[in-house]
Structures are given as C-alpha cells and as structure tokens.
C-alpha cells in the first residue's frame, strides 16, 4: 500500500527543516563575523543570484512534477535525462550572463564592492542549476525520504564550505564565495547521483514528449516566476539602493517568513502537485481535488498559526537571539512579515498548474509586478522609509492571494467559501491569540535579565495553555503531531 499524502509530506518537511535550519545557522554565524556593510554586500550577492535564477531556469524544475506521473519508470528516465540537458544549458547561460553583467548590477545597487564577488560567484550557477528538480522527481515516485537525505547532505556541505573559511581563517566575503563554488561542485555530483536513484536498473524507453511540449508548459511558469521574482525583488532593490548595505542587512535578516511556514507549504506543494496533475489527467474529479486541497489547508493552519502568533509577539527578541543585539532593528521587518504568514498557507499554484492555467498565472503576476515597482517608487518618495516598503510588499502579497482564490473558485464553478475552511481557520486564530495575550499579561510583572529565559518562559506557558484549552475551541493540535512522532519512533 502506498504511503499517504501526509507521510510523503512528512519527509519533505524534514527536507525543508534541514534546509531552513542550516540557512539560519549560516546567517547567524556570518552576521557575527562580518560587519553590517560586509554582511549586507554578501546578502546582495545572494539576492542577485536568487533573482536571476528564476529567469534562467525557465520553469524547468516544475516540469518534473507535472509530467513524470503521466509516464512509467522507463519513460520517466528519458524525461529526466532530456530536462537535465536543458538545465545544464541554462546554467551555463546564467553563469556567463552573471559574469559580464556584474559591473552593471553593482552600479544599479550603488555598491562597487559587488563586482568582484559577483564575478567569482558566476561559477556557481553552471553547477547548481542542473541540481534543481530533485523534489519533483522523488515526489512523483513517492520516494520523498530521498529529498530529506539529499537536502540535509547538500545544505550541510554548503554550510561547512562557507562558514569554515570565515571562522577559522578570518576570511571575508570572498572566502565565503569560494566556499560556495567548492560546495556547488560537490553538490552537482551528489545531485546527478540522486536523480538516477528511482531509475536504478531501469532500461530507458523513449517518452512521447517533445521539447515543444516541455517549454509550452514551463515557459508560462517561467514568465510567472520572472514576474514573481520581480515582485519579491522590488522591496530588496529599493531598500538596497536608497538605504545602503547596512539597512539591507537588517532587512534581509528580518524580512523572512517563519521557517515552519516554508517547510509545511513547500512540502504540501511538492506532494500535491503530482496528485492534482494525476487527478486532472486521469479522472477530472473536481470534488476530490477540492477535498484534498481543503484538508491540506486546514492541517497547515493548525500546525503553523500557533507559531506565527507567538513570533509576532516576540519578533525583536528572536532577532537578537539569532543575529545579536546589532540586529534588533530586524525585528520590525520580521513582525511585518508575520502578517503575511497568516495568508500564505493558501497554496494556489499546485491547483492552477494541475488545471493547466499557467498562462493566467503568468499574466496575473505580470500586472502585480508592475504595480509593486510603481507603487514602491512612490512610497520611497512619500515616506522615505524601508519599513513602509516592507508593509507595501506584504499588503500586495495578501492581495495577490485573495485574487487567485477568487479566480480559482471561478474556474471550478464554486464560491470562495467552499475553497477555504474559514470558520476553522478563524477558530484557530482566535484560540492562539487569546492564549498568547493571556500569557503575555500574566508574565508582564516579571523582570527578565535574560532574553532567552523570557522567550522560553513565555513559550512553555503558551504551549501548555494552548494544549489545555484546545478542547474548548474544538481543536486538537496533538492529532497532527502523532504522525510525526510515529515516523520518528520507527
């Protein structure tokens, strides 16, 4: 009997947990060893890479999850091989473009220190782009435990290669970038090995899929991703250009989603994409697709919201614990982004992609990208505040989610309230908010000499109150922890 969707998602969560944990550890270490300006420059290099990555991958990593469920293993091997060739080509083009565009990018961001770092970093894309798509391959064949293993190994390797030269050899930005290059080469070898695991001892058969079909599906996704990255890049560009590397360092450390949100939503998306694709391709069972989607949404809310509400109240303390007192200013950005975490559990992309609505998805992102770049310019002129830019970014992201919800409901011929379990979600939010307020006021009379003790005391009492009072709100948080505990006990 095949593993359940929850079981498959569990391993993707573990994969995300390892990625997020190692990323946080890396940021915490580098924040302490680099000065603010130096750390800001390093984060700008990563920002440029992540921005251009979406453009050059052309939506190809998404193709694995869409097409592989429609072919047998022998044909799947042929599909993977074909897409890998395209990934190698786009990786090479990415590296060449990054090298020659480095001086122009440095001038745009008003940071001359970027040129040398970007040109050295240009060796990375040609090695990392071909590693993409592993999640789609293993999710399609319901072997997501390999995603957890690969992510843990590759991210740990990246952490060691980047951090060791900085800590033990007093290296600066260039030492960290050299670490990226070294880790990328080893990761490429590891990824090529992992991509062959599902097809071990399988003789490939030619799959009835053309390059034209692949790009007909991936190109609209690439366009949407391009617009999406432009939406995401707008706040980073304006803050970097108008407020300097120091403010950008504070912003980039703080304006992040709660790691658990990314872990749960990415796991849900990876697992549901091939499921939805198969339902649409073979059965067209709209009711089953909506049932699975609503179930995933409710489970995500009951897992994520207790943490979102807690971190909303203790944003400043969390930033200090992670990055030191110098990054206390990151707390306001973290707090602003917590409001987005309430909404971005709603995953519209897997549903739209499975329904083949990639062109619509791309057009909507195009209009939203135009809005945020124009609006961002006026916000800078009127408010001259990096926090105002962050608020604009969150407001538009929430607007985007609601727009997509409305159109998905329209495509399916149902009402929005039939897509989202609104009452259940409001019940979770009411319960968690009442619990954190009760704890906050109950402990407000104490004087705390240690930030970590303050956070721990509030967290423990909050967790206890949450569990003890859950039955009053007809909620059961423990039932969603049982599958995790059972997995770990095996």
From TrEMBL:
<keyword id="KW-1133">Transmembrane helix</keyword>
<keyword id="KW-1003">Cell membrane</keyword>
<feature type="transmembrane region" description="Helical">
    <location>
        <begin position="175"/>
        <end position="194"/>
    </location>
</feature>
<feature type="transmembrane region" description="Helical">
    <location>
        <begin position="428"/>
        <end position="448"/>
    </location>
</feature>
<protein>
    <recommendedName>
        <fullName>Membrane protein involved in the export of O-antigen and teichoic acid</fullName>
    </recommendedName>
</protein>
<feature type="transmembrane region" description="Helical">
    <location>
        <begin position="332"/>
        <end position="354"/>
    </location>
</feature>
<feature type="transmembrane region" description="Helical">
    <location>
        <begin position="254"/>
        <end position="276"/>
    </location>
</feature>
<feature type="transmembrane region" description="Helical">
    <location>
        <begin position="214"/>
        <end position="234"/>
    </location>
</feature>
<feature type="transmembrane region" description="Helical">
    <location>
        <begin position="118"/>
        <end position="141"/>
    </location>
</feature>
<feature type="transmembrane region" description="Helical">
    <location>
        <begin position="297"/>
        <end position="320"/>
    </location>
</feature>
<feature type="transmembrane region" description="Helical">
    <location>
        <begin position="148"/>
        <end position="169"/>
    </location>
</feature>
<feature type="transmembrane region" description="Helical">
    <location>
        <begin position="86"/>
        <end position="106"/>
    </location>
</feature>
<feature type="transmembrane region" description="Helical">
    <location>
        <begin position="9"/>
        <end position="34"/>
    </location>
</feature>
<dbReference type="Pfam" id="PF13440">
    <property type="entry name" value="Polysacc_synt_3"/>
</dbReference>
<feature type="transmembrane region" description="Helical">
    <location>
        <begin position="460"/>
        <end position="477"/>
    </location>
</feature>
<dbReference type="GO" id="GO:0005886">
    <property type="term" value="C:plasma membrane"/>
</dbReference>
<keyword id="KW-0812">Transmembrane</keyword>
<feature type="transmembrane region" description="Helical">
    <location>
        <begin position="46"/>
        <end position="65"/>
    </location>
</feature>
<dbReference type="InterPro" id="IPR050833">
    <property type="entry name" value="Poly_Biosynth_Transport"/>
</dbReference>
<keyword id="KW-0472">Membrane</keyword>
<feature type="transmembrane region" description="Helical">
    <location>
        <begin position="389"/>
        <end position="408"/>
    </location>
</feature>
<feature type="transmembrane region" description="Helical">
    <location>
        <begin position="366"/>
        <end position="383"/>
    </location>
</feature>
